[in-house]
Every structure is written in C-alpha cells, then in structure tokens.
Design goal:
132 residues, four-stranded mixed beta sheet, Glutaredoxin, single chain, alpha+beta
C-alpha cells in the first residue's frame, strides 16, 4: 500500500486531564466534537484525501480552549468550537485566508502573514461512497 500524501494535516487536541485540573483539558471543552465536525466538513467541501484531520494529545496550550494547528504552515488556533470549524475549513484550507480572530498570539514564525496556499477541492459526486 502506498504511503498517503496530504496537502495539510490538521491536529485537534483531544487531551484529557483529571477533573478539576487547573489548566483544564481540550476533551472536556469539546475537542472530540471539533475533530468530528472537521472530518465532516472536509468531506463536504471535497478535501477528503487532501487534508487529514488528526487527533492530538496535549498541544500545551490548555488555557486557550480547544486547540487546533494546521501543518505545514503551523497556524495555531485556540478556543475553537464546532461552530468555528466551517469557517476554518472554508477560509483557511479552501481559501488560503487564516481565521485571524481564532489565531493564538505570538506566532512569530508566521511574521505578518494572514494568508497561505489554498487547496483546490475535489468535485463531489452525489451518491459517491466518499460523501456518505
């Protein structure tokens, strides 16, 4: 079997800490639901097979709420909810425009960049098994 090649990897923190931990945890804040929505949105817009939605352990940004990072450009998002996922997929992944309102501070590696490469979706064929 060939090794898959993706245009992007999106890591969503689903780390779980003990109840009452002062830093909180992404699982308790909805990380698994964010990843599930991400997978559905990637399929909906035709990015399945081009972008991989990955579960991540602790990304060490616990105080920021559910954390998501997009590679290879290394754009970090925090406080992500299921309601933000469509915007991230359509704006960042399809359109190449970062969702600046959700970006974590201090991303010096990005400089002043607010845009990156867009990904061309694959047309979706109604009734195709990949859309179900």
């Amino acid at each position: 079997m060939a090794v898959p090649s993706f245009d992007r990897h999106v890591f969503v923190c689903i780390n779980e800490r003990a109840a009452g931990h002062p830093r909180g945890c992404c699982k308790e804040r909805g990380g698994p639901a964010v990843r599930d929505r991400l997978k559905k949105e990637l399929t909906r817009v035709g990015l399945r097979g081009k972008v991989r939605a990955n579960k991540a352990g602790c990304l060490d940004q616990c105080e920021q709420g559910v954390t998501m990072v997009v590679y290879p450009e290394q754009v970090w998002y925090g406080g992500v909810t299921v309601d933000d996922v469509t915007e991230i997929v359509e704006s960042h992944l399809v359109g190449g425009k970062y969702v600046t309102r959700l970006m974590l501070d201090d991303q010096a590696h990005l400089g002043d960049a607010t845009e990156g490469p867009a990904i061309e979706p694959t047309p979706i064929v109604k009734g195709d098994a990949t859309t179900e």
